Please model this.
Amino acid sequence: MINYRNDYGYYLYRGQIFDTKRKIIDEAIYHNDTSPDIKFYFHDNVFEKIDWTHEPEFSLDELYKIRAQQLREEFDYLVLMYSGGVDSHQTLNAFMKNNIHLDEIRSIFQPSLAEKHSFNSDPYDPFGLLNEYISLIPWYKKIESQTKSTKIIIYDFTKDLETIQFDSFLTDYYFNHATHTSMMYSQMKIFLETKKLIQDLQPLANKKVAVIYGCDKPIFTIKNNMMFGFFADTGRGGYVDCLNYKEFHSPPYKPKMFFWTPDCPLIPIKQLHIIKKAMIKSEKFKTMACNMAPFKIREQKVFKKIIYPDYNDNIYQSALRPNPGEKIYTTLFPEKKLMEIIKEKNKVIEESQSILNLNNMKSKYGISVRTKNYFVGEI
Model:
């Protein structure tokens, strides 16, 4: 079973360790606790021993190379989950630029639908996920030409969507793990992706296998011209909560976050110092950063370009978050009336959250719980 406490962070509520927020909400309701004190810990024993005010001497490129080499030396078989997003693209380049071998590059899309779709550059196109795949086709060809010994697997999950028993999926999986109501399609995608990974990698169970995710961008807040960094549970990715599902307890691989890791803790600190210097240099960027919520500023293009040297403007990214695939699903399966079912079934979640003051930031992605703040410096 995945060890959340040691690897991916954990929650503490009423002196008890929890691995998902959904369980905490249920526990809080049981105790009639309308203002639960929930804490999230992410390798505090490592990060609190580092002086965050001191900028690491390594460049970002050097740190990304170190991280890639660490993973290569630790594991027999490396799989990179590649979406074409800025995080996974930078992760891919950390390996490719430094000639560090990846055994597999794996993506999950719907190419059978994309073939019937005309590319639309509008980031708010309701079929944005299909545009993302189309924009990546030249990059897959480039990757293939440069990495002859690396398997490139594009998993088309369109047909498998049909196999999901919708009601049982909602009851047994989604509503036992979700704490917000708008990511149904994404949750189904992650569920199928995990199921496929376990199936495909089972023959390698006697090897040390890592599945690498480009998680995550640094998060910071500014108070009285002082910059603080922190970690949040949303950075772990849905794939971690997915492995808490009863059927996925013992996967033949270990999920590994590329950017957030106690094995290379200087990465987020270096990223934050570069952001801090950018704010000192540009009053416009500083004003933007001070006036935007922590989770919103890191989605801005200027932010991504600062922390990712290999940022690529030519790869399409859907702006429809958190549920960019809703239109695709409802078009494929109109008879299932996705949104109506979600609204009805999610009533329990929404009611439970409405009586609780989780006393932590709320982003449009749902409720996130964050760690302690780490002081980076004045801006």
In short: Confidence is low (pLDDT under 50) at residues 358-366.
